[in-house]
Specification:
Penicillin V Acylase, Chain A; 6-stranded antiparallel β-sheet; alpha+beta; 24% strand
């Protein structure tokens, strides 16, 4: 059993929310800055100055994309006594890593289930976030109540503004890594910033536009769902986006391209983590077998699946590989979008009970 992630509540203007986030998670933010500067140096060959200089080029694109989110980033830097470029680097960590190195231990199993296929008639969204064990102590659960925006409940690395979560309008989001031969770094709104704009949205149309209208230079996948029974999968690469919807009441995604518009790129990730193929197969098979009886408890069981362990849906550290290349399920998240509930574990779900939080 493990203690849950620190739970941080902030409210006010975008800048005020950022300052409060920075103050409350100062220790975790400094941990993350040190951790990523080390990773970028060891596996990307980037010096501190290289990384921060690249990250700084995203400032103007973020301002143009969403000035409020940029204000929040400035507030996080102020509250945590960090440099603005350091906080920009945390929010650009996905692009800095995946544009440089094609072999990175990052996997996720994500899924959405619509009301007709769930036992309680609710829209469910879930994800096992498989990533570097070194980030676990730098993560937090954030409740953000910003003026003029829906309230947001999300799990993220401290110092970043977005990742997986839900909002008070019943919109939820998951994020999966994808890598193609067309991925490269250029100044664009980072995917973590895009995730936050999705969660700031009042409706599904606005949430989808937050991703579809954004410039990007790397690949990724998001599932966006809303209470009442709609889920959309957006599988993105630098050249195009595949848009997929549930079949038989559910949809799932892992870490390889499956969309109809993915033929314009070469998938360079799946040869490195072929487990993505059987994780998706296992998930879809289980969802089909449950028909209209999918429940939160059933999804917990699914996310604890150990077929192929350690490279399973519930991912565990492989001690045979170097530490920088190790991965595990850092957090398992299940969202009931109708009840505005978020269930989360710290670490693999087989080793920890789910903590439940509600966005009242």
């Amino acid at each position: 059993m493990t203690d849950p992630f620190p739970y941080i509540k902030v409210s006010g203007s975008a800048h005020e929310c950022g300052v409060k986030h920075g103050k409350a998670a100062k220790k975790q933010i400094h941990h993350n800055i040190d951790y990523y500067l080390g990773i970028w140096s060891r596996i990307c060959g980037m010096t501190r100055n290289d990384a921060l200089k690249k990250a700084s080029t995203t400032a103007d694109p973020i301002k143009m994309y969403d000035s409020g989110i940029y204000d929040e980033i400035e507030g996080i830097a102020e509250g945590s006594d960090s440099k603005l470029d350091e906080i920009l680097a945390l929010n650009t960590r996905y692009e800095l890593l995946f544009s440089q190195v094609k072999l990175i231990p990052d996997g996720c199993t994500a899924l959405a289930v619509l009301p007709d296929a769930t036992m309680g008639g609710h829209t469910l969204l879930a994800q096992n976030w498989d990533y570097r064990p070194g980030v676990k102590e730098g993560c937090v659960t954030l409740e953000i109540r910003q003026e003029g925006k829906p309230a947001v409940l999300l799990h993220a690395e401290a110092g970043t503004v977005g990742h997986k979560g839900l909002n008070s309008n019943g919109i939820g989001l998951t994020l999966n890594a994808l890598v193609s031969d067309k991925d490269h770094f250029e100044p664009c709104p980072p995917i973590l910033v895009q995730c936050r704009k999705v969660l700031n949205s009042k409706g599904l149309n606005e949430a989808m536009q937050a991703v579809l209208l954004a410039r990007r230079s790397v690949s990724s996948n998001v599932i966006i769902a809303q209470a009442g029974g709609v889920a959309i999968d957006l599988e993105m690469n630098p050249l195009d986006t595949s848009i997929m919807v549930p079949e038989n009441g559910h949809i799932a995604h892992t870490n390889h391209f499956i969309g109809p518009r993915s033929l314009v790129v070469k998938d360079t990730f799946v040869p490195q983590i072929p487990n993505t193929v059987y994780r998706l197969s296992r998930t879809n098979t289980k969802l089909r077998s449950w028909e209209s009886r999918v429940s939160v408890d059933g999804i917990k069981e699914m996310l604890r699946d150990h077929f192929g362990k350690p490279y399973s849906v519930c991912t565990h550290i492989d001690p045979a590989i170097t530490e920088d290349m190790q991965a595990e399920t850092v957090a398992s998240v299940i969202m009931d979008l109708d009840e505005r509930n978020l269930h989360i574990t710290k670490g693999p779900p087989c080793l920890s009970e789910y903590e439940k939080y509600t966005l009242a």
